[in-house]
Amino acid sequence: NAGVTQTPKFQVLKTGQSMTLQCAQDMNHNSMYWYRQDPGMGLRLIYYSASEGTTDKGEVPNGYNVSRLNKREFSLRLESAAPSQTSVYFCASSLGGWGNTIYFGEGSWLTVV
Amino acid sequence: SQELEQSPQSLIVQEGKNLTINCTSSKTLYGLYWYKQKYGEGLIFLMMLQKGGEEKSHEKITAKLDEKKQQSSLHITASQPSHAGIYLCGAETGANNLFFGTGTRLTVIP
């Protein structure tokens, strides 16, 4: 019952450092997503990939890059971390299209100091 | 842009009591999702509603979407400590996006 798996679960970065959050799904889903969750702001979409080979910006893409490595994997990269990127990051996946449930990973807690 | 308002923001109830959480949209909802999140964990899918007047139930949780498709409610009957967590509603804003409300934090006192 792996579903959506993301790593690492916890990470502390210094301002200016780079890192990549990894995400993999084993449900043969077409679409994958990265969200961030901040207190009082709810979940906000950073980037999504509707299908293998495509990526699109969401609501808050600045400071992030993504790679859809293959159908299973979708990574999120912070090139130069800033304290404003301290957040909980969630990867998610779905079959895609309207009306298909989006399934979430367990989250990655990132602190930038 | 889509806005989803959840109320109340937090709720404390005694075990065994019923409760309702509301989610109101500024636009017509084409798909409304309810998720539950426990602290330190991911989001667990509860239910999805698409049709005006639709109602779905799972165990002691019932979700409804009003006829105008701008408001949804989540009702828990005879609450238990296992129901505690953050409940999030999400609205489909495109074929590949869910826009979320800010959540309702539920505490159930044994």
Could you tell me the strand content of chain A as a percent range? over 45%
- H/E element order of chain A: EEEEEEEEEEE
Proportion of residues in extended strands of chain B = over 45%
Query: What is the CA–CA distance across the termini of chain B?
Result: 41 Å
Q: Largest interface by residue count?
A: A-B, 27 and 25 residues
Order of helices and strands of chain B: EEEEEEEEEEE
Query: C-alpha Rg of chain B, in Å?
Result: 13 Å
How would the global form of chain A be characterised?
globular
Class computed from helices, strands and strand pairing of chain B: mainly beta
The unreliable regions of chain B are none
Briefly say what this structure is.
The complex is a heterodimer of chains A (113) and B (110). By secondary structure, chain A is mainly β.
Describe, in plain words, how this protein is organized in 3D:
- The complex is a heterodimer of chains A (113) and B (110).
- With 113 residues, chain A is mainly β.
- Helix content of chain A is 0%, strand content 51%.
- Chain A has no helices and 11 strands.
- In chain A, strands 2, 4, 5, 6, 9, 10 and 11 form a 7-stranded mixed sheet that branches.
- In chain A, a hairpin with a 5-residue loop joins strand 7 (64-68) and strand 8.
- The N and C termini of chain A lie far apart (35 Å).
- By secondary structure, chain B is an all-beta fold.
- Helices cover 0% and strands 58% of the residues of chain B.
- Chain B is built from no helices and 11 strands.
- Chain B has strands at 4-7, 10-14, 19-25, 32-37, 43-49, 55-58, 61-65, 71-76, 85-94, 97-100, 104-109.
- In chain B, the strands form 2 sheets. In chain B, strands 2, 4, 5, 9, 10 and 11 form a 6-stranded mixed sheet that branches. A 5-stranded antiparallel sheet of chain B has the order 1-3-8-7-6, with no helix packed on it.
- In chain B, a hairpin with a 2-residue loop joins strand 9 and strand 10.
- The mean pLDDT of chain B is 91.
- Chain A binds chain B through residues 4, 31, 33, 40-45, 48, 50, 56, 58, 90, 92, 94, 96-99, 101-107, and chain B through 4, 30-31, 33, 35, 40-45, 48, 50, 88, 90, 92, 95-103.
